[in-house]
Amino acid sequence: MNLHSADPVPSANHAHYLGMIPLFRRCKPEQMARLAQHAHIEHHPKGKILFISGDQTDSYFIILNGWVKLFRETLDGTQAIVDILTSRHMFGETALFEDKISPFSAEIVEQSTLLRLPLQVLENEIAADPALALSLLKVMAGYRRQQDQELEHTKIQSAPQRIGCFLLRLVDQRITGPFVIHLPYDKTLIASRLGMQPETFSRALTRLKDQTDIRIKGATIEGDSLDQLASFACSACSSSFPCKDKNC
Amino acid sequence: MNLHSADPVPSANHAHYLGMIPLFRRCKPEQMARLAQHAHIEHHPKGKILFISGDQTDSYFIILNGWVKLFRETLDGTQAIVDILTSRHMFGETALFEDKISPFSAEIVEQSTLLRLPLQVLENEIAADPALALSLLKVMAGYRRQQDQELEHTKIQSAPQRIGCFLLRLVDQRITGPFVIHLPYDKTLIASRLGMQPETFSRALTRLKDQTDIRIKGATIEGDSLDQLASFACSACSSSFPCKDKNC
DNA sequence: CGAGGGTTTGAAGTGCATCAAATAGTGTGG
DNA sequence: CCACACTATTTGATGCACTTCAAACCCTCG
């Protein structure tokens, strides 16, 4: 397996990908071209560490496909997962405001294709374009709200409720009829994403099944309506269902 | 007690306060004057609710003195405390990126003097001045890192460790000799700030005392060196002591 | 088929929450 | 200055949720 392969296609072609993420949605074509000017595509195998918390870094990334885990770890090796991201998510841009030091580590958890972009160019564009700065501010405010809710959840939701909330974020919450959910990655990884042990996850999922009407077959979960799931999961949440922005 | 008293002094005099907070430290005098143009000073008694999560809001605040609690609550009344702030802290500016809806509630926990400022003016200045936008981005990145660490702490630190970490944030971490710490507010409030019950706080503080060399007399805590406290509290933390920016 | 990782189940332990009650501390009016 | 009321804090007893350790099971893939 190749650890990293660069794509020879000219950078201008990569600008197209930038339009997929919220931060750059309103950029003008020439600005996108500048932002993408030194971009290149990278393929990474499962397990690859992109960078370590505390590292100096010059790049930020957009995920074209695959899954990436952001985490921090203590001296004794315990991991605290910051987030797990997939297609159309961006990461690493935070380093721009931390003296180019990344506040977390990043690891590929499913074989992934990434677009690597230079922080320097982003910095220049932000300094010159208040609209882009405002856009990034909005994105950061969103991160913050998401984190707020996560904190709230770990404090006041039970393990089964956190799982229910996690499941709700995997589907289109507007659908009213039957639904099918495919767990996007390992149950073990979901468990640590939710801050619990694999054993706890397994048992909590069983409890969730008993208390709602969902059915579980391996990594597939289905049910006849989201209502029961939502009322179970969201009863200990300050925001109401359906959750804005898929953050329960 | 008066619920709210406006100050008659012209707004230009208030610009001086803006220089105290990181966001505005580098602003030019005329920009500060514009930012402060509709500011006014408010005095609020303990218990006063400034605004409720979900409220439309037009103002942000700078605390001149006192203590303010930011929190969210669920349908059943459980509170999740977002932060507790004092002099030289700013709050409420997040609403700018959330359609002027505040994502949390704010309550005065100790009689406070606040400077109330209009969001609209801040919005205008940011849109016109990339340097100010960058400054706000830096502030927001700081919030994010702080939250990240808080999340990590609630997940992997024990109650006594969280208290130790909280204490370390109250002192100048560079001092090497004996130290004295005064708890800034109610133990009950500290407990909920740290996401635990008052009873748990009391017991955890006792356990912390047993495992380190600190001495406790009411709201005063002292010891001969921070080392032992730090090595106890920070062993389950991804950042190392002394903690950058007083965030252990 | 057999090896190995992911997942589940069982049993026991730990830490925090909860309920209840005692104690300390603070401010009040007499 | 004292007694009282009220709140903050501590202590005790008990319960529950999650963790930990151990082992079984299952599923995939060579």
The total count of helices of chain A amounts to: 8
Biggest β-sheet of chain A, characterized? 6 strands, antiparallel
Gyration radius of chain A (Cα, Å) is 19 Å
Structural class of chain A: alpha+beta
Inertia-based shape of chain A: globular
**Distance linking N and C termini of chain A:** 38 Å
- The number of E-state strands of chain A comes to 9
Oligomeric description of these chains = homodimer
Proportion in β-strands of chain A: 15-25%
Mean pLDDT, all residues of chain A: 89
Largest interface: A-B, 45 and 45 residues
Helix content of chain A: 25-40%
Task: Give start-end ranges of low-pLDDT stretches of chain A.
Answer: none
**SSE series of chain A:** HHEEEEEEHHHEHHEEH
Write a compact overview of the structure shown.
Two copies of one chain form a homodimer. With 248 residues, the first copy, chain A, is of the alpha+beta class.
What are the SSEs and their pairings?
The structure is a homodimer of 248-residue chains.
Chain A: H1 15-18, H2 29-35, E1 40-44, E2 49-51, E3 59-73, E4 79-85, E5 90-91, E6 105-118, H3 119-128, H4 130-156, H5 159-168, E7 179-182, H6 187-193, H7 198-211, E8 215-217, E9 220-223, H8 226-233
Antiparallel strand pairs in A: 1-6, 2-6, 3-4, 3-5, 3-6, 7-9, 8-9
Chain A binds a DNA duplex (30 and 30 nucleotides) through residues 158-159, 186-188, 196-204, 206, 218.
